[in-house]
Amino acid sequence: MAKKGNSGENRSRSSMSVFIIAGLCCFFYVLGAWQRSGFGKGDRIADLVNRQTDCSILSNLNYETHHGNGVGIDDIEEVNEIKPCSDDYIDYTPCQDQNRAMKFPRENMIYRERHCPPEEEKLHCLVPAPVGYVTPFPWPKSRDYVPFANAPHKSLTVEKAVQNWIQYEGNVFRFPGGGTQFPEGADAYIDELATVIPFDNGMVRTALDTGCGVASWGAYLLKKNVIAMSLAPRDSHDAQVQFALERGVPAVIGVLGSIKLPYPSSAFDMAHCSRCLIPWVANGGMYMMEVDRVLRPGGYWVLSGPPINWKNSFKSWNRTEEELDEEQRKIEEIANLLCWEKKHEKGEIAIWRKRENYEYCRNQDSQPTVCETTRDDNVWYKKMEACVTPYPEVSEPDKVAGGAWRPFPDRLNTVPFRISSRSIPGVSAETYKEDNRSWKKHVNAYRRINKFIDSGRYRNIMDMNAGLGSFAAALESPKLWVMNVMPTIAEKDTLGVIYERGLIGIYHDWCEAFSTYPRTYDLIHANGVFSLYKNKCDPIDILLEMDRILRPEGAIIFRDEEDVLIKVRKIVRGMRWNTKMVDHEDGPLASEKVLFAVKKYWVVGENNSTSSQ
Prior knowledge:
Layout: H1 7-36, H2 43-52, H3 98-101, H4 141-144, E1 145-147, H5 155-159, E2 167-169, E3 172-174, H6 186-193, E4 206-210, H7 216-221, E5 227-232, H8 240-246, E6 251-253, E7 268-274, H9 286-294, E8 295-304, H10 314-317, H11 321-337, E9 341-346, E10 349-353, H12 417-420, H13 429-449, E11 460-463, H14 470-475, E12 481-487, H15 495-500, E13 504-508, E14 521-527, H16 529-532, H17 539-549, E15 550-561, H18 562-572, E16 577-583, E17 592-599
Parallel strand pairs: 4-5, 4-7, 5-6, 7-8, 11-12, 11-14, 12-13, 14-15
Antiparallel strand pairs: 1-3, 2-3, 8-10, 9-10, 15-17, 16-17
Enzyme class: transferase
Family: Belongs to the methyltransferase superfamily.
Organism: Trema orientale (Charcoal tree)
């Protein structure tokens, strides 16, 4: 039997091993930095060695920050604990609060629009989850099943029973895929649309579904690799948007009312209304003109249900022939005024297509009123107008205004027309490509820290300051989708670029609450958000809103300057979050750091301490 070695000798060898490993790590870190700088040779060899000696995977790596003034978590003063809200606020939507809404006019659905609380009425507490809350089912099972405890609202199971919207079965809701216009399921309905609209070749990628219900149309379109922004108000159909997001389908609370939709011009490849009850002919056709604004040249508009083909259906709709005939006639007139081409009418479905440019329309007898404003997409809280947003100019009559369509996923990384045409000052094709490269590197670093990013654990993801959409592009997968948010105070408005890439997003001001229910996102990415909003609004309000919309056990990734993140970390220690600060991928000398956070699981009635352990 071999003798055991001397313990002192073992300690000496162990110490020597640590020094050798540390030395190798430092050496290859410097070597890697040198070869990445452009001066080093033998890039492939250095890259191979770096991967084989990747110090980031060592289990004992210290992820604490090593840059700045040496301020650590232990140097921060006592934590200010933020208390839970009462159970009255489990489904609280601050800017669509039902009680506040009733104080506003019903004309043009103004009372269903955003009405945020004044500063003195803002909640400063943590919105709780309901008792029994569980992690949603993974996609694609979540499309068809939602745990009852997560959204315990049964009214739609009764009201929409014959239309197969939703059924209550034991401890889950089941979504058979039906809708008011497709009670037998969305698949057959989508197949009929596909006889006119090119879903299968990737040319149609982004869609807007107005009056979406529980978003079954958008849910089943995902099989065609089409992503829909589903839109519905918070009204008597309680929790329809909440159900959509619990299913893992993109949706926001919203309405076609008196203000413009929070999307850029020429954004969507198609728009859809399936018995959405929007008065399309009201206000001189203003709502159809707003759809025209957000449709790309060449985009499609689908209208199914009243008044289409009313002669065969008016009795079941409980409306008079005269009323329906007048409504369809006016819709046709407005569509002609907008120079849309009618492509299809069969049964209760009609499809129009917006012209690819305005050249064809110049000679028509009736010309619409053109909006006086420029193509600037400053639409946040701007009044909707009964006027037409001009097409982008074209150099030749056969060109597509705003650039030719590219199929998805090719368009994801192709330089968008808004950039190649130099429509966005300071953003060139090269800066776009470099942005893509940078975010691929950042996302790969995130994956090394959080192994669940690509696993399907995070279905609903939000990027609070989306830039060119490169974070979402680096993550692109059928397992997830990203809501790309363009802050209204961002230096450059690039939301149109994001849509050109085949991604979706929305304008928003983070000094206010987002248009969604609590607990609707699995992962939130906040790049430079707190530097952007410095001295604009209270960071505590932004963090409380992030907590409201994040699911229990959801994750947040902050990327910002170290001094900013230290302040953020101080606040969130009192919010039932666990945190970990790590260095920038380029090393500890970079002033930018990354803060990872995970929201703890807790439900209403649990009064445990919020302090981080």
